[in-house]
């Protein structure tokens, strides 16, 4: 039997009782003959509490020091989980991200994993131990501790699974799989048995919240099968893997939405490549991800530009833009009262009518659309926050997703 | 100006307000032109809370995992202190014990520092930064995190001061120096201006609690001057350094007492070196420190043996003894209702009447003495816990310590 990587989120290890439940599940998997690596997040609201503690001291704490502080959250949970597993008689060892060979870049608070050196993990597995690795954190080339940003534990799990050539990477969450839409918004939403990496990537990055996009990217590159399932039941969840699209009859797999976005509009900027390039380079330099981008020429000399960023990045985005703008004449507008809704499906690329049906559904429901972006497997629209639920329900109905395959 | 190492205990950094007070003191020292290294403990009761959390999961958590958990306490406080210092505009960086080059042996929960590799600390100092190092923790040769046991932060500070050839190692506590006796027991106790390493070693190891004995040992070996002072005032405290004894007129410097001891008595053990050797080797192997030892031959074939250990080690001591005893006929008695009181003074070695005066004082106060041990600079007696305060007061009076030098 092969290596199984299991990842448990913060809510799965929030207190002693839940920790013991996770410990029992881990031990059961080990007793079935698997080598088990467990990746775990900080307990419950620990990360939020630590951030709150930092904010009491400084409004803008140095990011390196914030990482030093936040990394204690996972370090505590790996130690406690190791104690729980040990108390059940199963040999076990915990490793911090740095000890586990999780090597990252130096972008503190949102570092990316560059490589996993699996030597120590393998060595400990070969001693017959369950190995617990702290999610969300790693070691920079300068021997500093960096965190991967919210949800980075998923990425840790998948990267470890890839490095160890694991059989499967099980991601345990408080939901029991990936749905055709958020069940809280659409009661008739349906659990998907399997989704393709590309679909999951769009679903995740668009706010389905079940998996971190970076984790799905890494899984796709290394062919890691992810099994998303509930830590509170034994039911099968949703498998994320390479799906043979020839066998697919359906076009749209799900409706995703992302509440964490804010729209920035620049009116009357010079219509030349240099200015645009300067804006996006400057934002990239401070680590801000720009998502949807729409450009509309207002005249030959000037143009209007809209794009979206996460709500947390809005302040820094506006500061960065302000520096570039200096004494120029263009105007800046920000609006964080928007939500992005998207339809996702790997079959979409062969079906040109999908976008049209989407606009039809939104128009029928009298929902204004601000910005549109498309990719081969999704179409996204920015709509008013107040119409969020209406939009998702209208799309779920229009594409008959409750019927399923 | 040289390097100043400052060590702040858990009560000095217990909350945001106190952290800011420490930050201001650190910045002030840096502004005077010193290069400053700060060693800091976990905030307030953090370590106790973490131990409590571990105990909820397992009565006997693996020591390696306990260290993994406890190390988060200091890691959080170095990060928070760095944020506080940064908020005052002073460049600063925090380093965990492993990052700071604190290299220990593998004895988890009571590891000893084997070496300090000061390269990273020096590098960061030379960049004009205050460097904060986590006390109480270090890196084992197997790349694991080990803690030094309670109070180990003092040792970290002194070892760092030695490695960097610092001017002084300032230890900030909630008392303002070393006293001729515990002022809570003896109201007329006097603050000492300076004490010799040897005296401090006895005072510390006998429970004066102000400094860890291991810290004083390291200071003595490397000639580090320790300045014990209060974090709540600017007053001079007590300097611990090599004191020229020729200039000393007094014999006894102080009265110390240690409540953390338990007496173990073995009755009727075989009177041969092998048995004694086996007992103490076995205790050493599980990391138990034996303190006072008294042996009294009961007959030619058997002997009685008493010794003391810390109260935490009593259970493990008795378990270890039980294994050795197996089917033999000797008996074991334990008593943790005892306290060790001692008189300490570097001048003592040239004054043979001191021990006699000590017994006289205790006899006059009608206090029974169970076990006695002597060294060149101290005499210790085990007395009933109920007579603790009486004993310390009687000795302080007898040697006229309130009068001072």
Please describe what this structure looks like.
2 copies of one chain form a homodimer. Chain A is built from 11 helices and 20 strands. Chain A has helices spanning 16-31, 46-57, 63-87, 119-126, 152-163, 197-208, 213-222, 273-285, 314-325, 354-364, 388-398, and strands at 3-8, 35-40, 92-95, 102-104, 113-116, 130-134, 137-139, 145-147, 168-173, 194-196, 226-230, 238-241, 254-258, 262-270, 293-297, 302-309, 331-335, 338-344, 372-375, 378-384. In chain A, the strands form 5 sheets. An 8-stranded mixed β-sheet of chain A has the order 3-6-2-1-9-11-12-10, sandwiched between helices. The two termini of chain A are 32 Å apart. At the A-B interface, helix 1, helix 2 and helix 3 of A face helix 1, helix 2 and helix 3 of B.
Query: CATH superfamily of one domain in chain A, please?
Result: Acetylglutamate kinase-like
Q: Which term fits the overall shape of chain A?
A: globular
The average pLDDT score of chain A comes to: 90
The end-to-end span of chain A amounts to: 32 Å
What is the spatial order of strands in the main beta sheet of chain A? Answer: 3-6-2-1-9-11-12-10
């Amino acid at each position: 039997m092969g290596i199984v990587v299991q990842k448990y989120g913060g809510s799965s290890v929030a207190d002693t009782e839940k920790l013991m439940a996770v410990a029992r599940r881990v031990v059961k998997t080990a007793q079935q003959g698997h080598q088990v690596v467990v990746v775990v997040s900080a307990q419950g609201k620990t990360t939020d509490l630590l951030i709150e503690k930092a904010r009491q001291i400084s409004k803008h704490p140095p990011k390196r020091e914030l990482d030093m502080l936040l990394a204690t959250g996972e370090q505590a949970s790996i130690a406690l989980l190791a104690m729980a597993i040990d108390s059940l008689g199963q040999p076990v060892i915990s490793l911090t991200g740095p000890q586990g060979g999780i090597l990252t870049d130096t972008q503190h608070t949102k570092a990316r994993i560059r490589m996993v050196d699996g030597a120590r993990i393998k060595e400990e597995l070969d001693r017959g131990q369950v190995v617990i690795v702290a999610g969300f954190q790693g070691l920079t080339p300068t021997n500093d501790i960096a965190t991967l940003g919210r949800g980075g534990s998923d990425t840790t799990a998948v990267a470890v699974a890839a490095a160890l050539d694991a059989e499967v990477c099980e991601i345990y969450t408080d939901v029991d799989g990936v749905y055709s839409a958020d069940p809280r918004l659409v009661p008739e939403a349906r659990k998907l048995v399997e989704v393709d990496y590309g679909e999951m990537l769009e679903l995740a990055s668009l706010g389905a919240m079940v998996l971190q996009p970076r984790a799905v990217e890494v899984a796709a590159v290394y062919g890691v099968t992810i099994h998303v399932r509930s830590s509170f039941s034994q039911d099968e969840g949703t498998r994320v893997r390479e799906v043979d699209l020839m066998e697919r009859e359906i076009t749209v797999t799900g409706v995703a939405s992302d509440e964490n976005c804010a729209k920035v509009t620049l009116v009357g900027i010079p219509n030349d490549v240099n200015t645009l390039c300067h804006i996006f380079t400057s934002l990239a330099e401070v680590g801000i991800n720009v998502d949807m981008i729409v450009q509309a020429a207002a005249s030959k000399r000037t143009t209007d530009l809209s794009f979206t960023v996460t709500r947390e990045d809005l302040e820094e985005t506006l500061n960065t833009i302000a520096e570039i703008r200096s004494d120029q004449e263009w105007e800046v507008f920000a609006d964080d009262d928007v939500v992005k809704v998207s339809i996702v499906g790997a079959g979409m690329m062969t079906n040109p009518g999908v976008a049209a049906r989407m606009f039809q559904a939104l128009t029928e429901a009298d929902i204004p659309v601000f910005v549109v972006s498309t990719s081969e497997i999704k179409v996204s629209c920015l709509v008013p926050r107040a119409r969020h639920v209406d939009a998702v329900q209208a799309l779920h109905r229009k594409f008959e997703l409750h019927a399923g395959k």
